[in-house]
Request: fold
Amino acid sequence: MKIEDFFTQITKGKSKDLLETFTLSKSSFGTNIDKFENKKGVYAWYLMPAETDSDGLNDYYKIFNNKKFTATFKAKFNEEYFGENIRNTEEDKNKEYIKDKSFSDKQKFAFQLSALFLSPPIYVGVSDDLKERLSTHFEELNIKIGTNFDELQDYYDESNNKESAARFASRICKAVKISDNRNSWTINNFVVKVMVFKDEEMTNPIVQDIEGILNRTFKPTMGKK
Reply:
């Protein structure tokens, strides 16, 4: 099918024969959970800012931009120089930009929704049983967001199984807690967007390829490394 044919079907309300899309919080997932049983698809997690004063805005900035870099430099005669934790100086510029900014309650709500729907994903995943995978994610996020910082682990793996699905919540919540001194974040700040594939041509290997390309293209902050 050509992409223009796909969008034609969407405008005619026929896209449900091909796929379904959902944007879900923890509560709305609970009411739609059976729609995902034994269904394959890709999903992406998004994070809505908790606070919108200058400190809160900088916390949100750091979640997307506090990346760890290492660098190696080589010179003649096999000289080699190695550096870790190279600092991103853009954070200083961001602090200066937002230092006097604040929002009323209505403006805060508008900013939170804008950030939620227009931000890049923090994690992209794939599953052939979205009900099981997303249930694990929501359950683990709900637990880990209330866990002490020192008990959270910051690690990555390339596996795609239930254990890996549970681990992802630990590194996300650790990154959130590094940036936040007020414990402002809750499970309600996490939203997942899901695309369920129904067409028979969308085999599991094809869906996994889609997820792999999306991860390598967007490089989600908390994705597989």
Summary: The chain has one domain: 3-65+102-218. The mean pLDDT is 79.
